[in-house]
Amino acid sequence: MVPSVTHDRGIIQMIPALRSDNDRMPAWAGRWAFMLLAAYVLILPIAGTTALRNLLFFSLTALTAWAIARWRAGLYLPFAIPWLLYLAVALFSLLHAVAPRYSVSEIKHEILFGIVATLIASTWIRRIDDFERIALVLVAGSAGMGCWAIGQSIRDWTSNAAFDPARRGALLSGVGDYSTYIIVVVPFLLGLLWRRRHSRCASAAFAIILLLNLVGAVLSHNRAVFPALIAETAVMGFIGLRASGDWKRWRGTAAGGAVFAAVIAALFLYQIVSRSDANPDTDTLNRDPRITIWHSAIDNIRNSPWTGAGFGREVFSHVSPRMLQTSIQFWHAHNVVLNKGVQMGIPGMLAFLLLLMAAARAVWLPRGTGLDDSRAGILSACGIALIVGLLVKNMTDDFFVRDQGYMTWVLLGGLASSLHALGGARAKQ
Q: How far apart are CA 409 and CA 248, in angstroms?
């Protein structure tokens, strides 16, 4: 029995242990935190897992509260003031909410849970090593999602199943959610590919996973995913070149990035043509109904510029019922910034953009800071690219909610916290 116990302990020791800023934290608590957070990252993009997501989320919340009470773990909430300002504007919009109960529920799910997700990640992830492990879990999960999306598409093709946007995407996650998930994954996939470029096995594995994500993007039939991927690639290339300052060193990488962007542009054109051929009445760019939706959203903002009509995407269908009568897909403004304007007026739009700017500032490593750690620099670029990519992707829709919102805040919170701790450690040296 002794060898078995020793073997079991050896396996347990292999599980990474997240650590807060308190050395009194036992290793078992950190291991539980890693397992719960890793499982949460894997489960979030999968449809039909609400109960399991909630179990993991509230288990992490309880473990964090226990760590604070028992071992006095230090709480750290990046971009706290913008979060609170965003919350205050959302609460103020309730004064003129057209559906108060719905808006209160949405504030709870989108803002309060988003703050808790940021707080959990930033409290437990205080080292670049730990964040990179979570990023690896995210990337590994995307490989499974890509394989499932391909298998599902083959099954639908062989059975002559009709195209259903709600079913498309990996594990029935839907076109919009799955394509947004790809936007979340790809910056960290590119960063890890660059980090492991000298290892043939690792670089080949990441290249295959990248291919799976691109194929998944095509199979999603979503168009906006490709301009967002191009934007993310350009941002990472620009930040890398700016940090290095050596154009000759980056010529090969820039050429590779240009080829990758050209491939994505070609896929974008293919998606446009295939969508137009399949449904010429609505899927051609000059007949896109979003133009009409945006005009209606702008009119709503003009009618209530300071308070909006209450928090939550469905508010648009209450203030523009004629759009919903045109199509059941027109229940929100199909633009993340305009949605915030309809919900909270101009203050809501500004508060949302300020929150994203604060998140970008929290993960930004300016030149001359002395933070020359290659992982820190690469992951910082990944965080900036993620924010830009999400904005580009959600200019024609709004999937920066629920699972993709929580995933984003976990990643940005953990990255901001680990970079903040790294800067503090360097300052003490």
A: 36
Q: Of 34, 10, 66, whose CA–CA distance to 132 is shortest?
A: 34
DSSP-derived letter for residue 19 is: B
Q: How far apart are CA 68 and CA 424, in angstroms?
A: 21
Please state whether 79 falls in left (phi above 0), alpha (psi between -120 and 50) or beta: left
Bridge partners for 19 per DSSP: 125
Tokens of 9: 């302990």
Give the count of beta carbons closer than 10 Å to the beta carbon of residue 150.
Answer: 15
Is it the case that residue 6 has pLDDT exceeding 50? no
Greatest Cα pair distance in the chain: 74
Q: Which amino acid is at 55?
A: L
Predicted local distance difference test score (pLDDT) of residue 325: 76
Q: What is the dihedral of CA 413, 415, 417, 421, to 10 degrees?
A: 180
> Above 80 in pLDDT, residue 110?
yes
Name the nearest CA neighbour of 390 among 380, 381, 382, 400.
Answer: 400
Tally the residues of the chain: 429
Q: Which two tokens stand for residue 239?
A: 């930040």
Instruction: Give one DSSP letter per residue of 131-157, joined into a string.
Output: HHHHHHHHHHHHHHHHHHHHHHHHHHH
DSSP 8-state class, residue 207: H
What are the b/e assignments for 385-397, b being 16+ CB within 10 Å? bbbbbbbbbbbbb
Token pair in block for residue 172: 């029935």
pLDDT over 70 (residue 111) = yes
Q: Which of 101, 86, 127 is nearest to 344 (CA)?
A: 86
Output the pLDDT for position 276.
Answer: 72
The predicted-structure confidence for 144-181, as pLDDT tens digits, reads as follows 999 988 888 888 788 776 655 555 544 456 778 899 99
Q: What is the identity of the amino acid at 116?
A: V
Across the chain, mean pLDDT equals 86
CA atoms within 13 A on the CB side of 40: 26
pLDDT digits (tens, 9 = 90+) for 350-369: 999 999 999 999 999 876 55
